Amino acid sequence: MAAGAGPMFFPASPVAGDLCALAVSTCYAFSLLRIFEETATRGVFQQKLNRKLLHITFGLGFMLFWPLFSSGIQGAVIAAIVPGVNILKVLLIGLGMVKDEATVKSMSRFGDYRELIKGPMYYAITLTLCCAIYWRTSPIAIAGICNLCAGDGIADIIGRRFGKKRIPYNGDKSFAGSIAMAAAGFISSVGYMYYFSMFGFIEKSLKLVGGFLVVSIASALIESHPISTKFDDNLMVPLACVLLGTLVFS
User: Fold this and answer.
1) Structure pTM?
2) For 141-154, b where at least 16 C-beta lie within 10 A, e where not — what string?
3) Which one of 5, 43, 205, 206 has the fewest CB atoms closer than 10 angstroms to its CB?
4) Mind listing the pLDDT tens digit for each residue in 219-235?
């Protein structure tokens, strides 16, 4: 699929095709959010685990739908509507203007609605900007989303279960969690490199693989630093990926 190709739906009509792709990806996003709202409300998982499972699956799953859209700015902007709507949603809930206990339970650490204007909003902003600005031809978008979703999400799950050995400079983080984060971010990044290369959006190479490894290790180090605890992982990890990725992938 060439850089200027049309969408998977209605290739001859990019607008109609992109709107169909938007409908499909919106159904995915809505369904996934609804599932995790239900599991949170019913107590299927512990609240922190429920939050991290949503954290992992939403962004990674959203990227699977990118090939449905047309290439170029139109497809990128229309696709970005999916996470963009969630920026408004978590902002309204986090400011107390809208009450939605199910969403609060599925996205917050401690059940406080005000948490949504921090981590969850940074998360939605990251997905929106990576999609609208970098899009599927950029390894920066892949690294940013994969290290945020897979990396940070797996780090918390593994760290809580196996993180007995704490990192000296941050007692809240463990070696197991940081290693898991670097591995998950790297593996998922390489996976999406191969996925997008199937459609001709990106050219797979050992240089890209090496770049993903560097960015994933750096992201894990940033996530383990106390500064990430202070300013939120969902903000610091994407920033690190974008800044370092700009240098590594240039």
Assistant:
1) 0.93
2) bbbbbbbbbbbbbb
3) 206
4) 999 999 998 888 899 99
